[in-house]
Write a structure and sequence with these properties.
Blueprint: H1 6-13, E1 17-22, E2 25-28, H2 32-43, E3 48-51, H3 58-61, H4 73-76, H5 93-106, E4 111-112, E5 116-123, E6 126-132, E7 136-142, E8 144-147, E9 154-155, E10 168-169, E11 182-186, H6 190-200, E12 205-210, H7 222-233, E13 239-241, E14 244-248, E15 252-256, E16 262-266, E17 269-272, E18 276-277, H8 281-286, E19 310-312, H9 332-341, H10 361-366
Parallel strand pairs: 1-7, 2-3, 2-8, 3-4, 8-19, 10-17, 11-12, 11-17, 12-13
Antiparallel strand pairs: 5-6, 6-7, 9-18, 14-15, 15-16
Helix pairs in contact: 2-9, 6-7
Length: about 375
Amino acid sequence: MREKPAEDWMGQMNQKRIKKLSTRVVLVGAGPIGIEVAAGLKRAGIDYLQLEQGPVASTIYRWPRHARFFSSPERVAIAGFPFSSPHQEQPTREDYLAYLRGVVETLDLSILSYHRVMEIRGRKGSFTVRAETLRDSLVINCEEIILATGDMGEFNRLGIPGEDLPHVSHVLEDPHLYFGNRLLIVGGKNSALEAALRCFRSGVTVSLSYRRSGFDRKRVNSRLHLELSILTAKGLIPFYPETLPSRITEEGVELSRNDGSSEFVAADFVLLATGYHADLSLFQDLEIPLDEEGLPIYDGETMESAVPGVYLAGTAVSGARQRYKDFIGTSHHHTARIVRALGGGEVPVGTIASRRYSFSTDDIEAD
C-alpha cells in the first residue's frame, strides 16, 4: 500500500479539531445494504462505527421526489424487517426513507452522518481512517474495513461547453419546476424515461435526445419502454435518436450526429440523465485491484477483497463497471457472509422468512 507524506496528513488535520476513536470495524456507507450490515454487526456483538458522507441513505435521498423503485417491497426490505405499505406496490423514495429510518431507530443503530471518509491507511489489524465534518476531523483506528459505498457516487459528466449553466441539471428534483417550459432530456435509460413521463404529465414540453437508435427493452423497465415508445411515435415527445449534445447555451442545445450533421433544439431547461459512476477513491486508497471489466477482486464466500481485512458490501462490488448488475435485492447475502467471516454467526437479512426467496440477476434478465 502506498505511503503518504505525514506532513500532508497532519497539515489537513491541524486546521480542525481532531477527535480520535477506536473500534474493531469501520463501515463506510449507510445506504440500505450498509444499514443491513450494521444491523448484522450489532446483532452479532461486533464493535463497529458506521460513517456516511451525507444524510442516511444519501443516494436515495437524491432521487426525484415520489420516484418509485422498480423492485418489489420484499426485495428491498432489509435486516429481517418486512416492508409494509397501504398500496402493496413498489415503494416510493419517501416510503423507503421512512422505512430505513424506522429500521435504524428500532435497532438503535449509531450512524455518523455527514462524516465523509477522506483517507484510509494501514493494513489488516491496524487501519487508520480519517473523516471530515464541517466542524472537526475524526481519526479512527480499527482492525477491519467494510466498504458499502454504492455505485452511484458521481454523475457522468459530458464535458461539453455549457454543462454548468444554471438551467442545466443532472438530477430531476420535481417536475413542477419545469411546468409551462421546454425541457430537453438527454438519456435513454430508466431515469431519463421516467423523468420524461413525469414531466410530460406535469404540463412540460418535453423532448428527448439519446445516443442510441432506440430504447433497449432489456435495459429499461417494460412499462416505461411501452409508454415512451407510444409517446415518441405519436410525436407528443419529440425524439432525437443517435444524437449527442455538443454545446449547451441559454437558448437550447446543439445535438450532433455521427455523420457530422447537427441540429439545434430550443430548450428553457436541460436535464442530463446520463447516469452515475462509483466513487472509487477509497478503493484506490486501499489499492484494491480491479479486473478487466472494472470489478474489484474479492472472495465471494466471505466478501473480503484482495486486500486482507477489507470487505465489500452491496453495489460497491460493481466497482467501475458501467452496466449495473448488482442491486439491493441481489446483495442481501453480502451481509450474512461478512458477519459470518468476522465470527458473528448467522443474522437475518432481507425480509421476513415467509417472503424471502432466492433472487439473482438471472431472474431480472429472464424477465
